[in-house]
Design brief:
This protein is an alpha+beta fold and 126 residues long. It has one domain. The chain has 4 helices and 6 strands; from the N terminus they run E-E-E-E-E-H-H-H-H-E. Strands 1, 2, 3, 4, 5 and 6 form a 6-stranded mixed β-sheet that branches. A hairpin with a 2-residue loop joins strand 4 and strand 5.
Length: 126
């Protein structure tokens, strides 16, 4: 299966980047309703990883996950608190992070991108 990563989209949003061990991690959100031709994907270039997220695909995945765990979210107050805390943390501006697990995640992502660049973000079986 081939993906058309070069087609034009009608909306693009690029929030602040994160710098981890001299690697810049950038998120790009775009809108394209043709998920077969334009899924979310990850690319790397010298000193930079760019995570391209198709907002429509992300919405469908998030909706499916929330629906799957809806009853659990309604009953488990710890899970509710964790969700609220995670959402609030994403609202803060982060130019640089020192969280200890982030460098490991970037290292894992770089290893994956050595195998396939670009790499499909949400698809397990490429």
């Amino acid at each position: 299966m081939t993906f058309d990563y070069g087609s034009t989209t009608n909306h693009v949003f690029i929030p602040n980047t994160i710098v981890v061990t001299r690697i810049r991690v950038q998120f790009t959100f775009f809108v394209n309703s043709d998920l077969e031709k334009r899924p979310s994907y990850v690319t790397k270039s010298k000193g930079k990883i760019t995570i391209h997220i198709n907002s429509i695909e992300f919405y469908h995945i998030l909706k499916r996950i929330i629906n799957k765990y809806r009853s659990q979210l309604k009953k488990d107050t710890d899970l509710q608190c964790n969700f609220i805390a995670a959402w609030k943390s994403k609202q803060k501006l982060h130019n640089k992070t020192t969280h200890q697990s982030i460098p490991t995640e970037v290292k894992n992502l770089l290893s994956e991108l050595k195998l396939s660049n670009p790499s499909n973000l949400f698809c397990v079986n490429q």
